[in-house]
Protein backbone atom coordinates (compact mmCIF):
# COMPACT_ATOMS: atom_id res chain seq x y z
CA UNK A 1 0.00 0.00 0.00
CA UNK A 2 1.20 3.53 -0.75
CA UNK A 3 1.60 5.49 2.49
CA UNK A 4 2.42 8.86 0.93
CA UNK A 5 5.62 10.88 0.47
CA UNK A 6 7.31 8.06 -1.44
CA UNK A 7 6.69 5.43 1.27
CA UNK A 8 5.19 2.00 0.47
CA UNK A 9 4.52 -0.91 2.81
CA UNK A 10 2.98 -4.38 2.90
CA UNK A 11 2.08 -7.14 5.34
CA UNK A 12 2.97 -10.73 4.52
CA UNK A 13 0.03 -13.06 3.70
CA UNK A 14 -0.09 -14.39 7.28
CA UNK A 15 0.40 -10.95 8.80
CA UNK A 16 3.50 -12.14 10.67
CA UNK A 17 5.84 -9.78 8.79
CA UNK A 18 5.62 -6.15 7.78
CA UNK A 19 7.94 -4.50 5.23
CA UNK A 20 8.29 -0.84 4.40
CA UNK A 21 10.34 1.09 1.85
CA UNK A 22 11.07 4.60 3.06
CA UNK A 23 11.56 7.79 1.07
CA UNK A 24 15.26 7.45 1.91
CA UNK A 25 15.39 4.30 -0.24
CA UNK A 26 15.63 1.88 2.68
CA UNK A 27 13.85 -1.48 3.02
CA UNK A 28 13.02 -2.47 6.60
CA UNK A 29 11.28 -5.71 7.66
CA UNK A 30 9.71 -6.39 11.09
CA UNK A 31 8.07 -9.31 12.84
CA UNK A 32 4.62 -8.25 14.00
CA UNK A 33 4.11 -10.59 16.98
CA UNK A 34 5.92 -9.31 18.89
CA UNK A 35 7.03 -6.24 16.95
CA UNK A 36 10.77 -6.60 16.43
CA UNK A 37 13.32 -5.70 13.79
CA UNK A 38 14.24 -8.43 11.27
CA UNK A 39 16.33 -6.86 8.49
CA UNK A 40 17.31 -3.58 6.89
CA UNK A 41 19.04 -2.67 3.63
CA UNK A 42 19.51 0.17 1.15
CA UNK A 43 17.75 0.30 -2.22
CA UNK A 44 19.23 1.76 -5.40
CA UNK A 45 15.98 3.44 -6.51
CA UNK A 46 12.87 4.75 -4.80
CA UNK A 47 10.26 2.01 -4.47
CA UNK A 48 6.79 2.42 -5.96
CA UNK A 49 5.23 -0.93 -4.95
CA UNK A 50 6.02 -3.81 -2.60
CA UNK A 51 4.70 -7.32 -1.99
CA UNK A 52 5.58 -10.57 -0.23
CA UNK A 53 5.57 -14.01 -1.82
CA UNK A 54 3.30 -16.63 -0.27
CA UNK A 55 6.23 -18.35 1.45
CA UNK A 56 7.03 -15.00 3.10
CA UNK A 57 10.76 -15.50 2.61
CA UNK A 58 10.98 -12.99 -0.25
CA UNK A 59 10.02 -9.34 -0.67
CA UNK A 60 9.35 -8.14 -4.22
CA UNK A 61 9.88 -4.45 -4.92
CA UNK A 62 9.10 -2.33 -7.99
CA UNK A 63 10.87 1.00 -8.44
CA UNK A 64 10.54 4.29 -10.27
CA UNK A 65 13.04 3.17 -12.93
CA UNK A 66 10.60 0.45 -14.03
CA UNK A 67 12.50 -2.50 -12.57
CA UNK A 68 11.31 -5.25 -10.22
CA UNK A 69 13.74 -6.92 -7.79
CA UNK A 70 13.33 -9.67 -5.23
CA UNK A 71 15.01 -9.44 -1.82
CA UNK A 72 15.42 -11.89 1.02
CA UNK A 73 13.01 -10.94 3.79
CA UNK A 74 15.42 -11.89 6.58
CA UNK A 75 18.95 -11.88 5.15
CA UNK A 76 20.23 -8.30 4.91
CA UNK A 77 23.44 -9.42 3.19
CA UNK A 78 21.96 -11.52 0.35
CA UNK A 79 22.09 -9.75 -3.00
CA UNK A 80 18.80 -8.88 -4.71
CA UNK A 81 17.99 -10.37 -8.10
CA UNK A 82 16.36 -8.57 -11.03
CA UNK A 83 13.06 -10.12 -12.11
CA UNK A 84 11.81 -7.85 -14.89
CA UNK A 85 11.87 -4.34 -16.28
CA UNK A 86 9.51 -1.84 -17.89
CA UNK A 87 10.46 1.13 -20.05
CA UNK A 88 8.66 3.50 -17.67
CA UNK A 89 7.88 3.82 -13.97
CA UNK A 90 5.90 0.98 -12.41
CA UNK A 91 2.88 2.43 -10.61
CA UNK A 92 1.52 -0.71 -8.94
CA UNK A 93 2.14 -4.45 -8.66
CA UNK A 94 0.46 -7.60 -7.36
CA UNK A 95 1.65 -11.18 -6.93
CA UNK A 96 -0.91 -13.97 -7.38
CA UNK A 97 -1.63 -16.11 -4.33
CA UNK A 98 -0.26 -19.21 -6.07
CA UNK A 99 3.06 -17.40 -6.65
CA UNK A 100 2.88 -18.13 -10.38
CA UNK A 101 2.52 -14.58 -11.74
CA UNK A 102 3.62 -11.01 -11.12
CA UNK A 103 1.28 -8.37 -12.53
CA UNK A 104 2.77 -4.91 -13.06
CA UNK A 105 1.18 -1.64 -14.19
CA UNK A 106 3.18 1.26 -15.58
CA UNK A 107 3.00 4.92 -16.51
CA UNK A 108 2.72 4.10 -20.22
CA UNK A 109 -0.81 2.63 -20.02
CA UNK A 110 0.35 -1.01 -19.92
CA UNK A 111 -0.40 -3.91 -17.60
CA UNK A 112 1.96 -6.87 -17.95
CA UNK A 113 1.37 -10.39 -16.65
CA UNK A 114 4.72 -12.15 -16.13
CA UNK A 115 5.54 -15.62 -14.85
CA UNK A 116 7.29 -15.92 -11.49
CA UNK A 117 10.12 -16.49 -10.89
CA UNK A 118 10.97 -16.78 -14.62
CA UNK A 119 9.64 -13.30 -15.31
CA UNK A 120 11.20 -13.05 -18.77
CA UNK A 121 8.28 -15.28 -19.80
CA UNK A 122 5.32 -12.95 -20.40
CA UNK A 123 1.87 -14.53 -20.16
CA UNK A 124 -0.27 -11.61 -21.37
CA UNK A 125 -0.75 -7.86 -21.65
CA UNK A 126 -3.89 -5.98 -20.58
CA UNK A 127 -4.12 -3.00 -22.93
CA UNK A 128 -7.08 -0.63 -22.86
CA UNK A 129 -6.21 2.35 -20.66
CA UNK A 130 -5.71 5.70 -22.35
CA UNK A 131 -3.46 7.10 -19.62
CA UNK A 132 -1.16 5.79 -16.89
CA UNK A 133 -2.39 2.85 -14.81
CA UNK A 134 -2.30 3.99 -11.20
CA UNK A 135 -3.81 1.04 -9.29
CA UNK A 136 -4.48 -2.67 -9.77
CA UNK A 137 -5.96 -5.33 -7.48
CA UNK A 138 -6.70 -9.01 -7.96
CA UNK A 139 -9.56 -11.27 -6.91
CA UNK A 140 -7.56 -14.47 -6.66
CA UNK A 141 -10.33 -17.08 -6.78
CA UNK A 142 -12.08 -15.70 -9.86
CA UNK A 143 -8.87 -14.63 -11.59
CA UNK A 144 -10.33 -11.17 -12.26
CA UNK A 145 -7.96 -8.21 -12.20
CA UNK A 146 -9.29 -4.69 -11.61
CA UNK A 147 -7.35 -1.66 -12.81
CA UNK A 148 -7.78 2.10 -12.64
CA UNK A 149 -5.82 4.95 -14.10
CA UNK A 150 -5.43 8.56 -15.07
CA UNK A 151 -8.20 8.29 -17.67
CA UNK A 152 -10.79 7.92 -14.89
CA UNK A 153 -11.80 4.44 -16.06
CA UNK A 154 -12.04 1.16 -14.17
CA UNK A 155 -11.36 -2.00 -16.16
CA UNK A 156 -11.93 -5.63 -15.17
CA UNK A 157 -9.82 -8.31 -16.85
CA UNK A 158 -9.38 -12.02 -17.25
CA UNK A 159 -5.69 -11.44 -16.62
CA UNK A 160 -4.46 -14.85 -17.81
CA UNK A 161 -5.43 -14.04 -21.40
CA UNK A 162 -5.54 -10.23 -21.23
CA UNK A 163 -9.26 -10.13 -22.08
CA UNK A 164 -11.31 -7.10 -21.06
CA UNK A 165 -14.48 -8.16 -19.20
CA UNK A 166 -16.07 -4.89 -18.14
CA UNK A 167 -15.42 -1.13 -18.08
CA UNK A 168 -16.80 1.63 -15.87
CA UNK A 169 -16.16 5.34 -16.32
CA UNK A 170 -16.12 7.33 -13.09
CA UNK A 171 -18.82 10.00 -13.15
CA UNK A 172 -19.90 12.79 -10.86
CA UNK A 173 -23.41 13.00 -9.47
CA UNK A 174 -24.50 15.38 -12.23
CA UNK A 175 -23.48 12.87 -14.85
CA UNK A 176 -20.47 14.83 -16.02
CA UNK A 177 -17.65 12.55 -17.10
CA UNK A 178 -14.38 13.14 -15.28
CA UNK A 179 -10.79 12.23 -16.02
CA UNK A 180 -9.39 12.12 -12.50
CA UNK A 181 -6.91 9.47 -11.42
CA UNK A 182 -8.06 6.37 -9.55
CA UNK A 183 -6.20 6.80 -6.26
CA UNK A 184 -7.01 3.61 -4.35
CA UNK A 185 -8.39 0.13 -5.05
CA UNK A 186 -9.09 -2.73 -2.67
CA UNK A 187 -10.33 -6.28 -3.20
CA UNK A 188 -12.46 -8.28 -0.77
CA UNK A 189 -11.42 -11.89 -1.35
CA UNK A 190 -14.22 -13.22 0.87
CA UNK A 191 -17.18 -11.48 -0.81
CA UNK A 192 -15.66 -10.91 -4.28
CA UNK A 193 -16.08 -7.14 -4.11
CA UNK A 194 -13.83 -4.43 -5.53
CA UNK A 195 -13.74 -0.99 -3.90
CA UNK A 196 -12.54 2.07 -5.83
CA UNK A 197 -11.61 5.53 -4.60
CA UNK A 198 -10.67 8.26 -7.08
CA UNK A 199 -9.30 11.74 -6.55
CA UNK A 200 -12.65 13.35 -7.26
CA UNK A 201 -13.82 11.64 -4.07
CA UNK A 202 -11.88 14.27 -2.13
CA UNK A 203 -14.77 16.60 -2.98
CA UNK A 204 -17.70 14.19 -3.45
CA UNK A 205 -17.17 11.78 -0.52
CA UNK A 206 -18.09 8.74 -2.61
CA UNK A 207 -16.77 5.17 -2.59
CA UNK A 208 -17.57 2.98 -5.61
CA UNK A 209 -18.23 -0.76 -5.11
CA UNK A 210 -18.39 -3.57 -7.67
CA UNK A 211 -19.40 -7.21 -7.23
CA UNK A 212 -17.53 -9.84 -9.25
CA UNK A 213 -18.91 -13.36 -9.69
CA UNK A 214 -17.02 -15.64 -12.04
CA UNK A 215 -16.39 -13.26 -14.96
CA UNK A 216 -19.46 -11.03 -14.46
CA UNK A 217 -19.19 -7.54 -12.93
CA UNK A 218 -22.08 -5.65 -11.30
CA UNK A 219 -21.96 -2.14 -9.87
CA UNK A 220 -23.26 -1.94 -6.30
CA UNK A 221 -24.69 0.99 -4.36
CA UNK A 222 -22.24 3.83 -3.79
CA UNK A 223 -21.16 4.56 -0.22
CA UNK A 224 -21.31 8.22 0.76
CA UNK A 225 -19.12 9.29 3.69
CA UNK A 226 -19.38 12.38 5.87
CA UNK A 227 -15.83 13.46 5.01
CA UNK A 228 -13.79 12.93 1.83
CA UNK A 229 -11.92 9.62 2.39
CA UNK A 230 -8.17 9.14 2.23
CA UNK A 231 -7.84 5.38 1.93
CA UNK A 232 -9.92 2.19 1.92
CA UNK A 233 -9.15 -1.48 2.55
CA UNK A 234 -10.90 -4.75 3.41
CA UNK A 235 -10.08 -6.95 6.40
CA UNK A 236 -10.16 -10.79 6.23
CA UNK A 237 -13.76 -10.82 7.51
CA UNK A 238 -14.93 -8.76 4.53
CA UNK A 239 -15.44 -5.48 6.38
CA UNK A 240 -14.54 -2.27 4.56
CA UNK A 241 -12.33 0.15 6.50
CA UNK A 242 -12.29 3.78 5.42
CA UNK A 243 -9.77 6.34 6.70
CA UNK A 244 -10.85 9.96 6.56
CA UNK A 245 -9.49 13.31 7.84
CA UNK A 246 -12.13 13.68 10.53
CA UNK A 247 -10.75 13.91 14.12
CA UNK A 248 -14.11 12.90 15.58
CA UNK A 249 -14.52 9.92 13.26
CA UNK A 250 -11.16 9.08 11.63
CA UNK A 251 -12.10 5.48 10.71
CA UNK A 252 -15.36 4.13 9.32
CA UNK A 253 -16.17 0.41 9.14
CA UNK A 254 -18.84 -0.96 6.81
TrEMBL record:
Q: Which UniProt keywords apply?
A: Nucleus, Repeat, tRNA processing, WD repeat
Q: Name one GO cellular component term.
A: nucleus
Work out whether the entry's keyword set contains RNA-binding: no
Q: Subcellular localization, per the record?
A: Nucleus
What Pfam families does this protein map onto? WD40 (PF00400)
For this protein, the record's PROSITE patterns field holds: WD_REPEATS_1, WD_REPEATS_2
Name the species this protein comes from.
Nematostella vectensis
Chief subcellular location: nucleus
By what name is this protein known? WD repeat-containing protein 4 homolog
Q: Which SUPFAM superfamilies match?
A: WD40 repeat-like
Taxonomically, which superkingdom? Eukaryota
Q: Name one GO biological process term.
A: tRNA processing
Q: Where are the WD repeats?
A: 126-167
Could you tell me which InterPro entries the record lists for this protein? Trm82, WD40/YVTN_repeat-like_dom_sf, WD40_repeat_CS, WD40_repeat_dom_sf, WD40_rpt
Amino acid sequence: VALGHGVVGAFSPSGNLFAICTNRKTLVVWNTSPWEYVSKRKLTKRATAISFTQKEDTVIIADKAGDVYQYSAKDSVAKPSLLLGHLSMIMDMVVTDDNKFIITADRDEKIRVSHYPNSYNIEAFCLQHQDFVSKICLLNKSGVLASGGGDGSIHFWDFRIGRLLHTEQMEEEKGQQITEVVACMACCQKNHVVCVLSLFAFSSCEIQLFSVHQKSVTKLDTIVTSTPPWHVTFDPDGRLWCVQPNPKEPVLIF
